[in-house]
Design brief:
By secondary structure, the protein is an alpha+beta fold. Helices cover 27% and strands 23% of the residues. A hairpin with a 4-residue loop joins strand 9 and strand 10.
C-alpha cells in the first residue's frame, strides 16, 4: 500500500474522482479485509477440554495420519477393573493436563471410547530416559511439562515448547505422513524416543506384536499389531530422520519368559537393527548444536512397510516443513470454502469454521497411494474406482454428518458408501459395518445404521453403485438374527428386556433403520421388501406404555418392567439416555408418535417439559457420556439420540418454539475455547448439527429427502455445490434477539409449511428468512 499524507491523500482522491476510479481505494481496503483466510478461523483447541474429546494436532481433511500430543498414559484397567479416568483420554489429550508424553500419529476425534495412539515420538535432551514418567513426577521419565502460553494449534499445524528439555516441537502432516520439526535450544547430547508400547485405551497385553527394522542411519521401518477396540489391527510405518543418528538402542519391557529362543545370542539393546517384541521402546541419539533443527517424517500404511515408504516418497519427498504445512492448509481452505458464510460475530466465525473442520476429520482414508488396503478378511485389496475409508461411528454420524456430506461433499460420501459395501463383501457374517475401523468391526453402540447412510445416499442421487446390491446388503444385515436381539425383534416385534440391556433403544433404532430399508425398496420398486420393512418400521409402537406415556422395557410375555425410572439414564433399557429423550426417537413417523402420545397439545407439553425441567445429577452420574455441560433442562444435547427433537415443535404448529430453542442450543452448547463443546463431538456429528442448524434447516429423518426448517444463525451463506450450482441462505434482520422467523421464501416465492426438499437445494437457488424479535405464531 502507498503511504499517503493527509493532504496528499485528499489531492490523490480528487485526481481519482476525475478519472472515475475512486473505487480503487475501496478495493484496496476490501482486499486487506479479505486477506484473512477461512482456515484462520479454525481453532483445533475447541473441544480438547472436558467432554469434547477432540485432539489439537495437525491432520488434513479425512487424513490417515492424525499427529497430535498425548498428555498422559492412563491405563484402561487398574486392579483388574475398568479405570474411569481413561475416558478423558479418548483423543489422547486433555487441556487441563500439565505435561506432554509425546506425539503419536493416530487419533479419533470426539469419540466416547478409543484405540490408536500409534508410534509415539518424543524429543529429549540430557540423560536418556525410556520410561514416560508420571504426571505428578514428570522428571522421572521422558515426558515434559508445558504451558498453553507456549502452545499453538491451527489447521494442519501444532507447536509447543517442551519445558523440561527446552525443545520446541512443531508438527504438520500430509494424508499419510506425519512431519515433525524439533528445535534443540541447547547444544549437547539429545535423543528422540520412539515408543512402540504407547497407545490410547492401553492395557498390558494390547500390543500383540511389534517389529522395527533399522535400514540405515536415518531410516526405520516396521509394524505393530494390537488387540484393542479393533481386535486384529495392523499398522505399518516408515520413519526417516533429516540427520543421521550417531547411535540407537532398544529396551524390551516384556516380563522375562522361560523360552527366549536363540536371539539371545545378540545384544539387542545397542545398535541392533532387527527388533521384535510386544513391549518395545527405542531411542535415537544425536549430538546437536544450539538451536539446531532435526526433522522426522513418519508414514503409515495398512498394508506393508514398503507401502509406507512409498506413501512418504509420494506425499512428502522433501524436508521442507513449511511446504508440508502450506499444502495441508491449502487443502483445508478448499474444504472450508464449500460454504461461504457471513456470520454476526467473530466468535460465530470461529465456531462455524471449526465445526466444518471437525466435520472433515473422520471417517479417514484407509488405503495407500497405490490404492491398496487391508480388508476385513485380512487380505490385501485394491480400491477400484473409489477411495476406501475407515472409522465409521455410525450410531452418531447417520443423523446429520452423512446427510451433511451428501450436500457439501457428495463424491466423498459416495466413496464412504462404497467402502461400506466393500466391508460387507469381505464380511464372513455378511453384515454392513456397525462401528468399523482399521479393517475391523468393533460392534460398538446399537442399530444397523449403515442402512440409513446407504438409503439416504441412494435416494438423494449420491451413490451411483449397484442400488439393488446395496439393498440386498441392508436386508441381510437387518435379518442377521444372532446380532443383538434381531431374532427376537423379528419374531416378537420388539426385543425383550431379559434378552438385552438396551432393549428399548435397540428396538426404536431398528424400527427407524427398517423404515430406511423400506424407503429404498420402494424407490427400487421391490414391493415385497417394501411391505416387509414398512411393517417392521412400526415396531416402535410395541415399546410404548400408554399408562405412563413413555417407551418402557417389557419382557417376552409382554409385561412392562415394574421397577422403572423415567429420568435415570443407566440400566433402564436405553443406551446412553433416559426414556424422556428416547421416547421421541421415532424420526420416521413423528405424526404417528404424536397421535400415540395424545395429539398436538400433549406433544407440545411434553416438549416444553423436556426443555425446561431440571435433571438432577444423580440420574446421569453412572453414564459417562452425559455430563451437566451437555444438558438443557432434561434435553441431552451432549449425546445424540434426541438431536432431532427440537424440530418437532413444527409438527404441533409451534415452530416459533423450535426457533427459540435452536438458537439457545447454538449459543449454549457451542463456544470458543477448549471447553467449547457440550459433549463428545462424536466424529463430527455434534458439529454437523451445528452447521445444519446454523443454515436454518435439519435432516430430521435421513432416508427422507425432507429437511425441517429452523432458525438460521448465519446472516448469509453460499453452499457451493459439487454440481457447479450454488444454494444461498439469507437471514434478513438477523441479530441475537431476532431469532423468530417471520416469513420464508424460496427463490422469491413464499415457502409454506416447514419442509425444504433436497432437490430445492441441489438445483441451486435462494432460501430467504425474514427474522424478527417476536414469534410469528401464524407462520
Amino acid at each position: 500500500m502507498i503511504n499517503l499524507g493527509l493532504a496528499n491523500k485528499v489531492r490523490w482522491q480528487e485526481c481519482l474522482r476525475t478519472f472515475g476510479v475512486v473505487s480503487l481505494l475501496h478495493l484496496a481496503v476490501a482486499s486487506q479485509a479479505q486477506e484473512k483466510r477461512l482456515v484462520d478461523y479454525v481453532d483445533p483447541m475447541i473441544g480438547t477440554a472436558k467432554m469434547g474429546h477432540t485432539y489439537p494436532g495437525p491432520t488434513v481433511p479425512f487424513g490417515s495420519v492424525q499427529l497430535s500430543p498425548d498428555t498422559d498414559t492412563i491405563p484402561y484397567a487398574m486392579n483388574g477393573k475398568y479405570n474411569g479416568d481413561v475416558y478423558k483420554y479418548c483423543a489422547g489429550y486433555q487441556y487441563s493436563d500439565p505435561t506432554i508424553v509425546g506425539f503419536s500419529h493416530t487419533h479419533f476425534s470426539g469419540t466416547g471410547h478409543s484405540d490408536l495412539g500409534d508410534f509415539l515420538l518424543m524429543p529429549t535432551s540430557g540423560a536418556l530416559k525410556l520410561n514416560p514418567g508420571t504426571a505428578d513426577q514428570p522428571g522421572s521419565g521422558y515426558r515434559s511439562a508445558f504451558s498453553h502460553d507456549n502452545e499453538t494449534a491451527a489447521a494442519n499445524y501444532y507447536k509447543v515448547k517442551l519445558d523440561a528439555h527446552n525443545i520446541t516441537a512443531e508438527l504438520t502432516t500430509s494424508a499419510r505422513v506425519g512431519h515433525h520439526k524439533y528445535t534443540f535450544s541447547q547444544a549437547g547430547e539429545s535423543h528422540i524416543v520412539f515408543d512402540l508400547m504407547h497407545g490410547i485405551y492401553n492395557y498390558d497385553d494390547k500390543n500383540v506384536w511389534t517389529v522395527a527394522r533399522v535400514l540405515d542411519d536415518h531410516t526405520i521401518v516396521g509394524y505393530r499389531q494390537t488387540h484393542g477396540w479393533a481386535r486384529t489391527r495392523v499398522v505399518h510405518f516408515a520413519m526417516k530422520f533429516s540427520k543421521p543418528f550417531k547411535n540407537y538402542g532398544t529396551k524390551d519391557f516384556e516380563k522375562q519368559q522361560v523360552y527366549k529362543g536363540f536371539w539371545r545370542k545378540f545384544d539387542q539393546t545397542d545398535n541392533f537393527p532387527d527388533i521384535a517384541g510386544t513391549k518395545i521402546r527405542m531411542h535415537f541419539d544425536f549430538d546437536v548444536a544450539a538451536n539446531e533443527e532435526i526433522q522426522v517424517k513418519l508414514a503409515i500404511s495398512p498394508v506393508s512397510m514398503d507401502n509406507a515408504l512409498a506413501n512418504m516418497e509420494a506425499e512428502v519427498p522433501h524436508w521442507d516443513f513449511d511446504r508440508t504445512k502450506r499444502e495441508g492448509q491449502d487443502l483445508w481452505e478448499k474444504e472450508l470454502g464449500r460454504i461461504q458464510a457471513k456470520l454476526p460475530t467473530k466468535e460465530d466465525y470461529v465456531n462455524f469454521y471449526t465445526a466444518m473442520y471437525h466435520a472433515a476429520l473422520m471417517p479417514t482414508e484407509y488405503m495407500d497411494v497405490n490404492g491398496q488396503y487391508r480388508g476385513l478378511d485380512h487380505q490385501v485389496h485394491q480400491a477400484d474406482g473409489f477411495v476406501n475409508y475407515s472409522s465409521f461411528s455410525l450410531w452418531d454420524t447417520f443423523r446429520a454428518f452423512h446427510p451433511y456430506m451428501n450436500l457439501v461433499n457428495p463424491s466423498r460420501n459416495a466413496d464412504m458408501v462404497a467402502s461400506m459395501m466393500a466391508h460387507y463383501d469381505q464380511s464372513t457374517l455378511k453384515m454392513l459395518p456397525i462401528w468399523s475401523h482399521y479393517g475391523n468391526d468393533n460392534w460398538c453402540m446399537s442399530g444397523y445404521h449403515s442402512v440409513s447412510v446407504i438409503a439416504d445416499a441412494i435416494l438423494k442421487g449420491v451413490y451411483k453403485g449397484d442400488a439393488n446390491k446395496a439393498l440386498d446388503a441392508c436386508i441381510a444385515t437387518a435379518n442377521y438374527r444372532r446380532y443383538e436381539g434381531i431374532g427376537e425383534y423379528i419374531d416378537l416385534g420388539y426385543i425383550p428386556d431379559e434378552k438385552n440391556g438396551t432393549s428399548v433403544s435397540n428396538t426404536l433404532e431398528y424400527a427407524y433403520d427398517d423404515w430406511c430399508i423400506a424407503q429404498l425398496a420402494k424407490h427400487l420398486n421391490r414391493e415385497s421388501d417394501y411391505q416387509t420393512f414398512a411393517k417392521r418400521a412400526e415396531n416402535w409402537r410395541n415399546m410404548f406404555d400408554p399408562s405412563i406415556g413413555f417407551m418402557r422395557p417389557k419382557d417376552a410375555q409382554g409385561k412392562f418392567r415394574e421397577q422403572f425410572d423415567v429420568l435415570e439414564t443407566h440400566g433402564q433399557g436405553f443406551i446412553e439416555g433416559n426414556t424422556w429423550n428416547y421416547s421421541l426417537y421415532v424420526p420416521h413417523n413423528p405424526q404417528g408418535l404424536m397421535e400415540l402420545i395424545g395429539g398436538k397439545k400433549k406433544l407440545s407439553t411434553y416438549l416444553d417439559s423436556l426443555f425446561t425441567m431440571h435433571l438432577p445429577d444423580k440420574f446421569f452420574e453412572h453414564t459417562e457420556d452425559i455430563t451437566r455441560e451437555g444438558i438443557i433442562g432434561n434435553y441431552v444435547h451432549g449425546n445424540e439420540p434426541a438431536h432431532h427433537v427440537v424440530y418437532l415443535y413444527q409438527l404441533v404448529g409451534e415452530g416459533w418454539k423450535s426457533q427459540e430453542w435452536i438458537r439457545k442450543i447454538l449459543k449454549d452448547q457451542y463456544h470458543n475455547g477448549a471447553d467449547g463443546l457440550g459433549g463428545n463431538d462424536d466424529c463430527g456429528q455434534m458439529s454437523a448439527w451445528y452447521l445444519f442448524s446454523s443454515l436454518g434447516f435439519y435432516p430430521v429423518a435421513p432416508g427422507s429427502t425432507d429437511y425441517w426448517l429452523g432458525s438460521p444463525l448465519v446472516e448469509s451463506a453460499s453452499v457451493r455445490l459439487e454440481n457447479g450450482k450454488t444454494f444461498e441462505v439469507e437471514a434478513i434482520n438477523q441479530s441475537d434477539k431476532n431469532v423468530y422467523v417471520q416469513e420464508v421464501r424460496l427463490n422469491g416465492q413464499p415457502l409454506k409449511g416447514y419442509i425444504l426438499k433436497h432437490a430445492d437445494i441441489v438445483n441451486g437457488g435462494k432460501l430467504q428468512f425474514k427474522m424478527g424479535a417476536k414469534p410469528n405464531k401464524k407462520a
